[in-house]
Amino acid sequence: MIVYKFGGASVKDAAAFRNIFQILSALSSAEKPLVVVSAMGKTTNALEEVFQLAHQGLSYTETLQNSQRYHLNILQELFPQQDAPVYEAVGKQFQELQDILTNVSPDDFDRQYDQVVSMGELLSSLILHHFLQAQGLANLWLDSRQYIRTDSTWREGKVDWEWTEAQMHAHLPAILEQQPVITQGFIAGTEQGATTTLGREGSDFSAAIFAYCLQAQSLTIWKDVPGLLNADPKLFEETIRYEEIAYQEAIEMAYYGASIIHPKTVQPLAKRCIPLYVKSFLHPQEPGTVIWNCQHSRIAPSFILKQNQCLLSFHTKDFGFISEENLSAIFQALSQYRLKINMMQNSAISFSVCTDYDAQRVPRLIEALTPEFVVLYNSPLHLYTIKNYDQESLEKIATGKEVLLEQRSRQTYQLVCRPAHAAR
Ligand SMILES: Nc1ncnc2c1ncn2[C@@H]1O[C@H](COP(=O)(O)OP(=O)(O)O)[C@@H](O)[C@H]1O
Ligand SMILES: N[C@@H](CC(=O)OP(=O)(O)O)C(=O)O
């Protein structure tokens, strides 16, 4: 069996839903895919905003109504018959969302966040399920919270692989013999039945979990670009497409911030040698990129830009050398406040870390470490990474930048700089 994943851009309007129907119709009747879908367009951002307002006790009605109107407009284009069952299903989902929002309390931000933000995928998958049915493509809507189990690390649930694999094995092969399955990316469930999420942009990872556990022939993620390029075309000019690329290369690109693939996606696929196709939903006949167990010699340099970075420097208060105890305290605090290290460097009496700037977590980290260190920080900054760099690519990135931190290994070059100039 095969797994297809359609992200937010693939379901952003009515035409996009029709396009998915075309892509699925092109499969032979013997191929019954498991389809993982993300929330429509920027719905997750809208739900985050609604939740933040509700959590602060502020009015969220307008933002919620905008999102509701966006969904309803698409529904009206896709289902001209006002008594189509999808209207009731979507109405119920919004009612559930409203009930959760009414009961939001000031504590427990992360747990409540998951209950709200998960609604985007439930809505989009319901709409896709009903739309395909209406087009004559019978399919089963599946609640992925009953198949992917995580612990209760809210907003980034840790997958219980053993349970998840057993659960999928027990039920899904028989279902997929009969018909395609439509399910949600990004969301999962705890043993107690609460909803968790897998981290922003986590639908690619959900699709990889399904592909791994079901030992799929392949996973295809459908995107608005021709494949995996050597840079984000929204940020860099003159990109090139990789026809094929090794798992390790793709894992590293995602790790350094190539946002086309969620960083956790490739590893489970690599473990079971499942090829990952990155294809354009605009040109489904085009080959795209295949990420698999291939051998290649040096490939074209890839450029990755991470924006909204923060550079923190921890200085000992007594001019003493940075010790292992100091490093341990810093790492512990980073782990406690769930801040990931994107780059780090130490010197005699200070230690620097580049991390994503999170308006809630970074100030808490600084507060926690201030008794022990003099903490300096700079933001917002840019972090550039060039994989497989050469002289020409280095010059392209470094020239004219105010560099705050720089590092290079044999294959990888990184620099942290101020975003004063356009990122090109
Ligand atoms: N190396 C890259 N190659 C291609 N696209 C990239 C790359 N890095 C970042 N992107 C960006 O990823 C986007 C597609 O991924 P994403 O927005 O996550 O899609 P979706 O949410 O629809 O799954 C592209 O529009 C492009 O701007
Ligand atoms: N909807 C979620 C999960 C996701 O992966 O979305 P997308 O496939 O559109 O990146 C988010 O925006 O974080």
UniProtKB/TrEMBL annotation:
Pathway per the UniProt entry: Amino-acid biosynthesis; L-lysine biosynthesis via DAP pathway; (S)-tetrahydrodipicolinate from L-aspartate: step 1/4; Amino-acid biosynthesis; L-threonine biosynthesis; L-threonine from L-aspartate: step 1/5; Amino-acid biosynthesis; L-methionine biosynthesis via de novo pathway; L-homoserine from L-aspartate: step 1/3
Pfam entry (one): AA_kinase
Amino-acid biosynthesis among keywords: yes
A GO molecular-function descriptor: aspartate kinase activity
GO cellular component: cytosol
Record's catalysed reaction(s): L-aspartate + ATP = 4-phospho-L-aspartate + ADP
SUPFAM superfamilies associated with the record: ACT-like, Carbamate kinase-like
Annotated EC: 2.7.2.4
Alphabetized UniProt keyword annotations: Amino-acid biosynthesis, ATP-binding, Kinase, Nucleotide-binding, Transferase
GO biological process annotation, one example: homoserine biosynthetic process
Domain Aspartate/glutamate/uridylate kinase: 1-280
Family, per entry: Belongs to the aspartokinase family.
Protein's name in the database: Aspartokinase
